[in-house]
From TrEMBL:
<dbReference type="Pfam" id="PF13474">
    <property type="entry name" value="SnoaL_3"/>
</dbReference>
<feature type="domain" description="SnoaL-like">
    <location>
        <begin position="5"/>
        <end position="124"/>
    </location>
</feature>
<protein>
    <recommendedName>
        <fullName>SnoaL-like domain-containing protein</fullName>
    </recommendedName>
</protein>
<dbReference type="InterPro" id="IPR032710">
    <property type="entry name" value="NTF2-like_dom_sf"/>
</dbReference>
<dbReference type="InterPro" id="IPR037401">
    <property type="entry name" value="SnoaL-like"/>
</dbReference>
Length: 126
């Protein structure tokens, strides 16, 4: 599987409420942890990211993930991507919808592509 297919699998897992924590690499050396920025959080280190993603999966449902401009560059053992994604989901009685920007980096480790950095943000007018 290539990096692009891994990103598509991540989106599909999000849509179906499947575990997401396995898409992220285990920590690098202690002085170089992986980082995930979401719409409202900054998670540093694989343990924190995995816990945050498990909590997200448990507390949300009915995800819509519509990729509009996925661009992926892959080189040997590293890849980077950007995308514009329409997201919506339910959390309790609340429904959320955002037009988001995604970017990130993946490394090829042990035969699989894993995220080592991800940033998801909402465009706002300045």
């Amino acid at each position: 599987m290539d990096a692009r297919a891994t990103i598509h699998d991540y989106y599909d897992s999000l849509r179906h409420g499947a575990p997401l924590d396995t898409f992220f690499a285990d920590d690098r050396p202690a002085d170089d942890p992986i980082v995930k920025f979401g719409l409202s959080e900054r998670l540093v280190g694989s343990d924190t990211i995995q816990e945050g993603l498990r909590d997200q999966t448990a507390s949300t449902s009915d995800w819509t993930v519509e990729s509009h401009d996925l661009r992926v560059t892959q080189r040997d053992s590293v890849a980077w991507f950007s995308d514009v994604v329409a997201l919506s989901w339910d959390e309790g009685d609340a429904h959320h919808e955002f037009y988001t920007r995604w970017s990130g980096t993946l490394e090829h480790r042990d035969g699989e592509w894993r995220f080592v950095g991800m940033h998801v943000s909402v465009a706002t007018e300045l």
